[in-house]
Amino acid sequence: MMKIQASYSCSSYLHKLVSTFVSILLLFHQHSLAKHHQPCPISTCGKIHNITYPFRLKTDPNHCGDSRYELDCKKDGPLLTMFTGKYYVQHIDYKRNKILLSDAGAVEDANCSFIPRYFLYDRSFNNILNEDEFGSQPFILDPTDPTRIAYYNCLNPIEDPRYVKVDTSRCNKPGYKWNNNVYAVLEPSLYEYHVRDIKVGCDFMVATLAKPRGNLEISMEGNFSYGEIHGMVIGGVEVSWLPLICEDRCGKGISCKVVDEDSGEVECDKHFCHYAYQTTDKCELQQQIFGYTRAYLRGIFIGFRSRITFSTRQLDNPVGLQYFDGGIFIGRNVLPIFLAARFLFGVVLLLVLFIYKWRRRHLSMYHNIENFLLESNLNPIRYEYKEIKKMTGGLRVKLGQGGFGAVYKGKLRSGPDVAIKMLTKSNVNNGQDFINEVATIGRIHHVNVVRLVGYCVEGKKSALVYEFMPNGSLDKYIFPKEGTDPLSYEKIYEISLGIARGIAYLHQGCDMQILHFDIKPHNILLDEDFVPKVSDFGLAKLYPVNDSIVPLTAARGTLGYMAPELFYKNIGGVSYKADVYSFGMLLMEMAGKRKNSNPHAEHSSQHYFPFWIYDQFKEEKDIEIMKDVSEEGINVAKKMFMVALWCIQLKPSDRPSMNKVVEMLEGKTENLELPPRPSFYPNETYRNHDDINSDHTSWSDSSSTSQATTNYSLDN
């Protein structure tokens, strides 16, 4: 029983406490409301005796009126600041929601035939308000088509009825230099007066607006006096505070129109629901949802644009509503952080993916090389990278730059010099160039093939160690520069024969058929005795000896030396004859001691050297380039030219094998017959005029090519 009483007593105490708290809150709320809604007295200033909401005097309590419609009571009456100009209030019509304003100069400049003090024009107002602007201006122009008056100060008198002279004899206005030629010009309707109507020598002073007068007929012919114009200016211009009425009656951002001036009734525009003012109950639910969404999106756009343009111009006067400002916060702060984080995440992800693929590619390359070395039984020595560095003295003496890396001079511990090629670009084809070189040179020994002494594979570093060729590559001897002694045709012939024997050995001297695919002067090295060595097997391929046609997925080699079947599939398959073609182009350059292609030759017929040489043989003419050459040298050069013409035949089946090339070079020139004319592409014939040096040649396509016979079988 005692527990029940105690419980009852406790609950009664809590009830009294809550009641007391609620009573205090209600009293405080009523006191606040009474304080907030204190009645405002009707103010008086000069002849205006009904100053009330929305207008207020500066001396009125702070809660009275609207600060945008504040009036300053002066000795000449209430003064309103509008567009930084000062205007005296002539009349306030609360039924029509209009106020009549006159320029301050109309009242204060009593001793001067009035020149308006402040600029006022139609464009000062914005009567055509869209949903973003409605309610942003305290006044609109009403009526919308007032009379416009412009004043000009002219150097000379103007004889134009539209220019009405202003009497300025009693004016002493600071800032103006009067010359008694001041004119007023009326523009009764917008765009009726143009810039072209301003007279020469007249400077624009000021413009103002006036309420139109029905009893004054205004025309561009000018039938009025300045007294009438002065009366219009004194009468002032009417403006309306309708935007505030619409805001109070319909809700902020909603337009309206007055339907009954006596009762002040207005009709609200139900279709105009501003996105930023959704607190009003005049908007339907669907409009509110749309407005909220639009406010956020608009705010996000403005905020984001201000962030990326580093401009706060649109943020200087924010709307101040939570939806719009919330969107600005998201667009200015949240969205840039999100996009930056997403961008950084994408960059990091791409970087990680790139590193992963790069490591996987390199690990795959090293794995391929290591597997090849483990499975191959090779004679070359495997060196460590530190031994390579020691051999080259820290990669000090650079001999040249190859297709897949630089070549440095080194010295073995046993004494001989070596050339070491550092394969810095081996990752481009998964280490295949390294495997190609080691697989080919590492298993063959021939006097005309460069010898691989050793190799190095250590992490990302790989190198090939060759025997050193002190005389360098062949190209500097067949295309000699100043300071290089040219080789005799006898020596060039010996070199060509050595190259042919080396290539023939590659094709048929090993247990595997080795196709070089990059025979050119740069890849022929010369030892101290000018013995040629075929080198650079980075593009080489190994095939069984009995394979006459080899599979090849892409063209390989150097332009100018590549066989046409690498491009044209309809002339025959790719085989060892591709190396024969390359050797033919090389042999042609060796015999001619010039490049096969020379667009700067004296005669157009010599632009492509093989064609010109063929024409010389065909016409049985002496070859002009072989001057001061012995008879034996001439015979050797003719033999080399003839063999080269056989090697560069378009169709692979028309070319000899390398064994046959060796036999032709070792034989006599008289046993060789002139082959068919070489061509660039299939189904090509050549018509030559009588004079080979006349620089007139022509080409045409034909369905057949000429054939010739020879005493030699082209294949073994």
TrEMBL record:
Q: Where is the composition biased (Polar residues)?
A: 707-716
Q: Write out the GO cellular component annotations.
A: membrane
Q: What is its main location?
A: membrane
- Sequence segments annotated as region (Disordered): 675-716
Give the residues the record marks as binding ATP.
K421
Give TM segment ranges. Answer: 334-356
A molecular function annotated in GO for this UniProt entry is: protein serine/threonine kinase activity
Q: Where is the composition biased (Low complexity)?
A: 695-706
* Pfam families, sorted: GUB_WAK_bind, Pkinase
Read off the SMART domains from this record: S_TKc
Instruction: Indicate what this protein is called per its UniProt record.
Output: LEAF RUST 10 DISEASE-RESISTANCE LOCUS RECEPTOR-LIKE PROTEIN KINASE-like 2.5
* Provenance organism: Cicer arietinum
